[in-house]
Amino acid sequence: MNPKEIRSPRAGLFERWTLNLYRIVILVAVFAVFFPGLNPGRVSETINRNLSLFTESVSYSALVANVQRVLMRGWIDNSIFILLQIFSAIVLVGIVLCAIGAAMSFGNHRMRFFGQFFPLSGSILMLGGLSGLYAGYLRLMALGNDKVPAMLPKGFWFFAIWTGILLIFSVLVFFVNHAHARHREKTMKMEEKYKLFLLLVPVLMLSFLFAYLPLYGWRYAFFDYTSGGTLSMENFVGLKWFMILFENEATRADFFRVIRNTLAMSGLGLLTSWLPMAFAIFLTQVPSKKFRRFVQTFTTIPNFMGWVIVYAVALAIFSTDGFINSFLNNVLGMASDTNYLMSNEHMWIKMLLWNLWKGVGWSAIIYISSITSIDPGLYEAAEVDGAGRFAKIWYITVPNLLPTFFVLLLMSIANILSNGMDQYLVFSNAINAKSIEVLDLYVYNLGIGSGQIPMSTAIGMFKSVISVALLFGANAVSKKIRGESII
Q1: Is 44 helix (H, G, I), strand (E, B) or coil?
Q2: Radius of gyration over alpha carbons of the chain, in Å?
Q3: Is 268 left (phi over 0), alpha (psi -120 to 50) or beta?
């Protein structure tokens, strides 16, 4: 080994800590791109406060949504907003380059050597983009237009400081990596565990953006907020909306009615959760492959139809001028003008049947794949022992499908309060509204329909907390049944 390559333990520890801090700094910058409160491009109070740097970079219409009237009247030049979007995109590209460099830092020394140029160039791009945003702020300030007042947001200073820190770490990592000869390894390599981790990162990012970042909106449940207003200590009300939910008699009655509808429809879904498994079992017993493929395709197609299309199908069949009434009038000679969709009778059963028609074929796919993975030798041995078709199904197929069934059942139990909104929204009308309104639809009607955003947010929080508790409870019960430790 070359003596120059021998390093002290302190040098190796310093390098590891430097790389880890450098990755954390870049990770924070990546997450900050999606936070509206940290948008450095919101250089005017007129720009939507809920606009993140990412949205501003990719959507010009979102950037100028609140200044359309000003632009149409020519009170301000739209070139300012075009430049704001361009420089925001430059900052975004710089962060992407830094993220690429952070990913390459998990490789060997040769990969780190070539990857170190990405964060250096990315930091410089971020500085250039921030300089352009500051120039846009100065330009708005010079115009002095009251319609579009200039403002230097807090996010600008955050990104300015963070870019400086990032540049310092990029230079530090450059010198750390420069100490290793780039030709020590002939090729760029990365350990398998880091490859798998980097493949998982986009999934984690999407999960954070769509599942955890929206939890930031829970703050509306603690304020007396109206649409278009602001959140401040002046309208902070604490647990007021949670108390009203149970103290107000009318609200409490509505809430428990909605909970009853939700639990009833979800309970019917749990009681019929075995149908996809049974459908898959009997479908695999069909000897004709062509007929089996036709049935599987025909029953899977409804899953890809939106509920609006499903309601259009229902309207064509069950409305006053639908197929059923036309058949009764024209073919059987019976006078019938019943609108079956307006009826409130057996509403829960009707919704269950529509849901089964739409989802049974799709849900059966996972069971069909599980059946194909069962060892054929088990069926051959059972046949030698004289077992018939139904005996093989009962003693071989069903036991092998039960683990999959119980996993899906546990997930359904955890989501017992989240049975969707689309289906019930399109089928809802004045007659069946009280019977069909589930929790998700109730939250939608309160927040969007009635403008009671704090109350709808409080109910949404209640639903999420109960769902998490049900998930842990179902998991604990399943472990206890299997004789495992709950912890």
Answers
A1: strand
A2: 30
A3: alpha
- Under DSSP, the state recorded for 215 is G
Q: What is the pLDDT of residues 434-484, one digit of tens each?
A: 889 898 899 888 888 888 888 888 888 888 888 777 777 766 766 666 655
Q: Give 161-208 pLDDT, tens digit per residue.
A: 988 888 888 887 777 666 554 445 677 788 888 888 888 888 888 888
Find, among 341, 344, 352, the residue nearest to 314 by Cα: 341
Q: Judge contact between 148 and 70, C-beta under 8 A.
A: yes
> DSSP H helical segments within 272-346, as ranges?
275-284, 289-300, 307-318, 323-330
Distance CA 412, CA 29 (A): 36
The sign of the CA dihedral 424, 430, 433, 436 is negative
Closest CA to 29 of 198, 205, 189: 205
Over residues 215-270, the pLDDT tens digits come to 888 888 888 888 767 777 788 888 888 888 888 788 888 888 998 999 999 999 99
Measured in whole angstroms, how far is the alpha carbon of residue 1 from the centre of its chain? 51
Q: 34: helix, coil or strand?
A: coil
Task: Look up the pTM and report it.
Answer: 0.70
Q: How far apart are CA 430 and CA 412, in angstroms?
A: 30
Spatial CA neighbour of 444 closest among 461, 465, 470, 422:
422
Angle between helices 347-372 and 398-414 (to 10 degrees): 130
Q: How many CA atoms are closer than 13 Å to the CA of 309, on its beta-carbon side?
A: 7
Angle between helices 275-284 and 347-372 (to 10 degrees): 50
Residue type, 344: N
Judged by DSSP in three states, 107 sits in: strand
Taking all residues of the chain, what is their mean pLDDT, rounded to a whole number?
84
Distance CA 424, CA 427 (A): 5
pLDDT tens profile 104-152: 888 877 787 788 888 888 999 999 999 999 998 888 888 877 778 888 8
Neighbouring C-beta atoms of residue 168, cutoff 10 Å: 13
Q: Which residue from 23, 176, 217 is spatially nearest to 106, judged by alpha carbons?
A: 23
Classify residue 76 as left (phi > 0), alpha (psi -120 to 50) or beta.
Answer: beta
CA distance 442 to 206: 27
- Closest Cα to residue 283, out of 357, 383, 339, 361? 361
Confidence at 1, pLDDT banded by 50, 70, 90:
very low
Instruction: Identify the three-state secondary structure at position 4.
Output: helix
Residue 485 per-residue DSSP state? -
Q: What's the rounded mean pLDDT across residues 295-312?
A: 91
